[in-house]
Specification:
Elements: H1 6-11, E1 21-33, E2 38-43, E3 51-55, H2 62-67, E4 73-82, E5 90-101, H3 117-122, H4 131-153, E6 157-158, E7 164-165, E8 177-178, E9 205-207, H5 212-222, E10 224-232, E11 245-254, H6 258-279, H7 281-290, H8 295-304, E12 308-311, H9 312-321, H10 338-348, E13 353-359, E14 375-383, E15 387-394, H11 399-408, H12 413-421, E16 430-436, H13 437-445
Parallel strand pairs: 3-5, 6-10, 12-13
Antiparallel strand pairs: 1-2, 1-4, 2-3, 4-5, 7-9, 8-9, 10-11, 11-16, 13-14, 14-15, 15-16
Helix pairs in contact: 4-6, 4-7, 4-13, 6-8
Length: 465
């Protein structure tokens, strides 16, 4: 008999026949009951809810029933009936039970309910079996799908930029080296330096910190592209918002100025929030009720608000006049810390803020220079509870101005000559940004630690599974 997914008992009951026989497969969340009747909550990951299986113990082998414990995996066939109990509309009266896999209660780490998120992180290989992480993973999938949907329907080309790069031009963060040299026996040049000519690529290479530079090449040929892939940063920053391996979405669009770029960022984020509300309400409701009572309210609120657009210089002024005690001092020229960003968003404006026109010293070399000689056309989108969720800019399209910046920052021309060439051959105004996928998921799931929205977090001293 064909297996029915548990989601169908909650969403597509019209397709099922009451009183008919069904076949279900899944993992036991709980088993309770007495000698007269037992109730098994069965979950198969297709929805956050579990299906109630009602068992008459007199009809089954006692030894078999004993082996059915939290975490074990079952195949049940039985009769679909209206539920007597509260909390579900239908249940299944078991007729046959096949035990696929046991889970020894003495050894199974998820035997008890209500583990802390910290503990679950330590057993990340089993986290997907919990209701909360199931919600996170379904939302993660939904957001990935919605991102492709958005760009596809707006005529963007999905461009695959390399993960292994030969340049360290972006300066976005410390990089991981990629090498096949024997670290115990490193070939040296006569000057005593590492002889990279013997390495796999014949030169030093790293894992990418961003696909942007290659993305720009695509935009200046195809008009509008986006990337969506893993990025790597080796900063030793053990914060709730940083991962060493995270996913980034980077649209890049020819003929867009910074205002078009901001419009796109706002429209894109609102599309994603709306998509989650419309398609994953069960998951959001569960996370809302269990972890963050304001999650759904906050999402709806952001959907309705116009994002504030404000220049960095004005933001500094607001922060200085706020009378707020900050750990990091605020003065013109400093890079804003998340405490500053969150003050602006959560206390002052009480809605998302797009900050623009940052000092050029704290931003990347490729950003379009303003006429004041001091600031660049950067734009960071700041979100409640998170701080920076998007970083982007209009790009410097003028070869001479870009070259000047490259020289000032001592960026080796041999690393970026191919990028500079885009400004020599058919240069055009263009803009783009990077959305941190896990930062987005912090907002969408209400989780407060970035390790809780990625299946296998990579952070300093942590790459077990
Ligand atoms: O602001 P960032 O460094 O910008 C860039 O990399 C540009 N090349 C993007 C572009 O213009 N195409 O990073 C972009 C976003 C941040 O706003 C943040 O959401 C996320 O990536 N991010 C991280 N997320 C998790 N862990 C980290 N270590 C992150 N670093 C950045
Ligand atoms: Mg940034």
């Amino acid at each position: 008999m064909e297996r029915t997914k548990i989601v169908d008992f909650f969403k597509h009951l019209d397709k099922l026949e009451m009183g008919g026989t069904v076949s279900v497969k899944g993992w036991v969340r709980t088993k309770r009951g007495n000698n007269a009747v037992a109730f098994i909550a069965l979950n198969d990951g297709s929805i956050v809810h579990s299906l109630q299986i009602v068992v008459d113990p007199s009809k089954f082998d006692e030894a078999l029933l004993k082996k059915i414990t939290t975490g074990s995996c079952l195949h049940v066939t039985g009769k679909l009936v209206e539920s007597q109990g509260k909390g579900q509309t239908v249940e299944v009266q078991a007729e046959t039970i096949e035990l696929y896999g046991t889970a020894d209660p003495e050894a199974y780490p998820l035997q008890k309910k209500g583990h802390s998120l910290e503990f679950l992180r330590e057993i990340a290989y089993l986290r997907p079996r919990t209701n909360y992480f199931g919600c996170v993973l379904r939302l993660r999938h939904a957001m990935a799908f919605a991102i492709h949907n958005y760009f596809n329907s707006h005529g963007y080309v999905y461009l695959h930029t390399p993960l292994i790069t030969g340049s360290d031009a972006e300066g976005a963060g410390a990089m991981f080296s990629v090498t096949t040299l024997d670290l115990n026996n490193i070939p040296k040049t006569p000057e005593g330096k590492v002889d990279y000519s013997k390495d796999f690529f014949g030169k030093p290479t790293n894992l990418t910190v961003s696909g942007q530079l290659e993305g720009e090449l695509g935009a200046l040929a195809l008009g509008a592209i986006y990337t969506f892939g893993p990025t790597f940063r080796a900063e030793n920053s053990n914060t709730p918002r940083h991962l060493a391996e995270f996913w980034m979405i980077e649209p890049e669009i020819a003929f867009y100025d910074i205002n078009d770029n901001m419009d796109l960022a706002e429209d894109f984020l609102k599309y994603l929030i709306n998509y989650a509300l419309e398609n994953n309400y069960d998951d959001l409701k569960f996370l809302n009720d269990m972890f963050d009572k304001e999650l759904i309210e906050r999402m709806k609120f952001v959907l309705q608000s116009d994002f504030v657009r404000l220049a960095y210089t004005e933001a500094i002024d607001i922060l200085q006049k706020s009378g707020q005690k900050f750990e990091f001092k605020v003065e013109w020229g400093v890079d804003l810390q998340s405490e500053h960003e969150r003050y602006l968003v959560e206390k002052h404006f009480k809605r998302p803020v797009i900050l623009t026109d940052y000092p050029k010293e704290i931003k990347a070399f490729y950003m379009k220079q303003n006429d004041d000689g001091k600031t660049v056309r950067a734009m960071d989108v700041l979100f409640p509870g998170i701080g920076e969720i998007i970083g982007g800019s209009e790009r410097e399209a003028d070869y001479d101005k870009l070259m000047k910046r490259v020289e000032e920052l001592h960026i080796p021309e041999k690393d970026v000559w191919w990028y500079l060439d885009t400004r020599r051959f058919g240069s055009a105004p263009h803009s783009g940004f990077g959305l941190g996928f896990e930062r987005l998921l912090l907002f969408i799931t209400g989780m407060t630690n970035i390790r809780d929205v990625i299946p296998f977090p990579r952070t300093p001293q942590n790459a077990e599974f």
